[in-house]
Write a structure and sequence with these properties.
Oligomer: single chain
Strand content: under 5%
């Protein structure tokens, strides 16, 4: 944490402990993408990988409610 960061009054920073990827909500999003759209596949080429990843990402962003559900951390919303 640095004192140089200007944090607006309406934002509260919740520092995560080091080496705890399970606490980072984006890790759960990647796990969901892999489990639902990228697993059990054989890719023909690098471009095939990129195409499948773009497809998976676009499927996910079309479901904002799912992103909110996966990324929700109850402990972060407690007073």
């Amino acid at each position: 944490m640095t004192g140089k960061l200007l944090v607006p009054d309406n934002i509260t920073l919740l520092p995560l402990p080091p080496r705890c990827p399970e606490l980072n909500p984006v890790e759960n999003l990647w796990q969901f993408i892999r489990a639902n759209w990228l697993s059990n596949r054989i890719f023909k080429s690098y471009d095939d990988i990129v195409d499948h990843c773009c497809f998976a990402w676009n499927k996910l962003i079309d479901q904002p409610w799912r992103i909110m559900t996966i990324g929700l951390r109850v402990w972060a919303h407690r007073s």
